[in-house]
Each structure stands twice: as C-alpha cells, then as structure tokens.
Amino acid sequence: MAEPSKVIHVRNVGHEISENDLLQLFQPFGVITKLVMLRAKNQALLQMQDVPSAINALQFYTNVQPTIRGRNVYVQFSSHQELTTMDQNSQARGDEPNRILLVTIHHMLYPITVEVLHQVFSTYGSVEKIVTFQKSAGFQALIQFQLRQCAVSARTSLQGRNVYDGCCQLDIQYSNLDELQVHYNNDRSRDFTNPNLPTEQKGRTSQHPGYSDVGVGFPQMANAAAIAAAFGGGLPPGISGTNDRCTVIVSNLNPDKIDEDKLFNLFSLYGNIVRIKLLRNKPDHALVQMGDGFQAELAVHFLKGATLFEKRLEVNFSKHPSITQGADTHEYSNSNLNRFNRNAAKNYRYCCSPTKMIHLSTLPQEVSEEEIVNHLEEHGPIVNTKLFEMNGKKQALVLFETEEQATEALVCKHASSVGGSIIRISFSQLQSIKENSQ
Prior knowledge:
Layout: E1 7-11, H1 19-26, E2 32-38, E3 43-48, H2 51-63, E4 67-68, E5 71-72, E6 74-77, E7 92-94, E8 100-106, H3 114-121, E9 127-135, E10 138-145, H4 148-158, E11 162-164, E12 167-175, E13 189-191, H5 224-230, E14 247-251, H6 260-267, E15 273-278, E16 286-290, H7 293-303, E17 307-308, E18 311-312, E19 314-317, E20 329-331, H8 344-349, E21 357-361, H9 369-376, E22 382-390, E23 393-400, H10 403-413, E24 417-418, E25 421-422, E26 424-427
Antiparallel strand pairs: 1-3, 1-6, 2-3, 4-5, 7-12, 8-10, 8-12, 9-10, 9-13, 11-12, 14-16, 14-19, 15-16, 15-20, 17-18, 21-23, 21-26, 22-23, 24-25
Helix pairs in contact: 6-10
C-alpha cells in the first residue's frame, strides 16, 4: 500500500462522471486544491490541501463504497506526493472575468434565498439565472448575469460585504461555467428568463446536474435553510450531506424491551419519523424510515454503537428505500411528537451522540426536583439534577452515571406525563451541572 499522500488516485472514473462529481465526493473532508481527469485511463488524480484530509477521506471510503451515478469508484493514495500541474478543475476560475459568479456565504445566521440574492445582485445589472446549493465550504450560489461587465461590477462592489449586519458575508469568485442549467423555478433555483419552468419534477426532489448530483444531498431538501442556519453554513464533522437513503436498519436490539414508540423516541432526535417496522422474523431488527437522507445520515452517525437495554446497537443504511405501509408498521408521519416540524434549526444544532445528561422541557410550572427524580430513577442512579426556568418555562437537567441509563430514560419517558404535562426529553451536550453560587 502506498504511503499516505495528499494526492488521491481514483479509478473506474467513467465518461459520465464529471469533475464536479468527484469534487462533491471529497469536499466533505477538506479543501481540494487540484484535480486532473485522466480520461483515457478512466482515472483521476485529486490533491487535498493536506495529508490528514486525504487520510480522513480514504479511511471513510474504506468502510463505505464510494459510488457516483451508480458506478463504484475505487480510491487509494497516489504515489505522487504533489501534483505539479496547475490544471485546477473546480467551479471557480479565480480572477478571470466571467458573467457567472460563484458566491459563498460565510457566517450565515439567517437563511439566504434566491429572492434575497436577486435583490442584492440585480442592482448591478440584469440577473438571468440563480442556482443555490450546499458544499463543504458552506452555502453557495451560482449567479448568471446577462453581461460580463455587470458581473465584474457586482464582484468589485460586493466582495467581502455582509448581506445582513454582522453576518452572511459574501465571498465572490468567477465561475468557470459558461451557462447555468436551471430546470425548476423554486426557492433553490430560478431562471428569470423563463418563468414557465415547473417548481418541481413530479415524484422527486429537484437536482441540478453538475452542481450537486451525487445522491440527493441536503441542499435539495425543503429544510436546507434550517440546516445551514444550525451548522453555520457547513456540516458537522463526519457528515457528508450527500446521502439519499431515508431508511435505516437497526440490529442487536433487546426484543424483550424494545417497541416502536421507544425507537421513535430515540430516532426522532435526529429527524422526523415516517414509519417504523419491527421485523418479526428477526426480533432484534427494525427498520426506521426518516424524513429525508440527511436526517437518516445523522441518525446512523450519532447512534451507531450506542447502548440500549444492555445491547450495543448496530445502525446502518437499509437497502430498502422506504418501508411499505402495512398492518405490521407503525405510522408516525402525522405525529405531533416529530421534533423537526418546528424549530428545525435548533433541533439540528442539538444533535449529538447519547450522553449521560438529559434535558427535560415542557414541564409543569409547579414541578419539583423530587418529582423529576421519582419519575426517572428507575432507569439508573441519578448523580445530579437542576431545575430552572427559561423564557418563563420550567426545564430541567438530569445527570445519570452512564450514557446507557440516560438513553433508557429518554426512550422510556420522552412524551410521558408529569403533573398532567407531556414532557419532552433530549440529550444535553453539557458535561456537568453547575451549581448556583447563591
């Protein structure tokens, strides 16, 4: 095996695979500085910014088969330690003027829509098309002007400026694309020269070939703004954002203690649940269909290896794209307990692996710490508790001795009743409970 290098050798790169496909595959692991397509050999050489980024990419794809447009590609360290060519095939060409701009939004605290971008950039000339998408660099947009000099004027005037006070900073480069292909007029893309385009292709979410078509990816989801706001325009470490599989399979469950509602309580921390099915022929297995591929990826990432009811869970993507509705499935798509119908950005921000600390909300105003302890102590020794008020509403932190005890308390007592109120429970990322000094 070749020694680690920041240059990655990719094989089985078919003619249908574009440069942007390869960029999408490796951008979650760091900045790509150079890309050379070896078309005659169906290969490519790709240089990361540093060796650790390349190592992370290859370690990830050792366990996950990388696939582009239905074709398996194979990756390994190159014998080259550095690419000497200056042929960098990214979407940005740098300082060579072009009528299409590649815009990256940094510190995106508020959602940026097609309408907002059009309002900002049309001041400098006629904007023909806009496409927005998400990459590892953050929330990005391609903006096509009618005239090149208008794009030059916009870049000169807006580079480094903020859309809103103190946030949403514009980083603008010239794109190397000659023409944007826009298939839908909606909140993610717009062809201002063709108002008759459909809003969505029937039966599937929109994709923009060449911009983000390795899987569906979360840029195409309706909650893209919430995700961008939650993670500052980027993604949590280890999350690619390119998964399009919505169904996960959970194995090594404790069949004597688990049921669909307990699984719902756990998996709904990472997204909305459509339906759940316990496999009768494999009592320790279950299928969980999440709201979209990004939520499924969060669940797999954060729950793989978690312990519940003395069993170490295995959580993986299922080969089934969805769970067929039937007598043995439990439906949750219309449940008001799904957490991501409201405050989605806040819920994404709180996603984490199971911890020893749980957070309780929607508690009755008159609740006491003793009542909370009595409600939860059957799941394990409670080390500490803290009852507090936030925006006039009672909340609590409860610290258990182990993550497993906290997980059991969450799956058993989320949506249970305390003093006539249905309580909500999630994991807290706090390490300890600070006592009041008074």
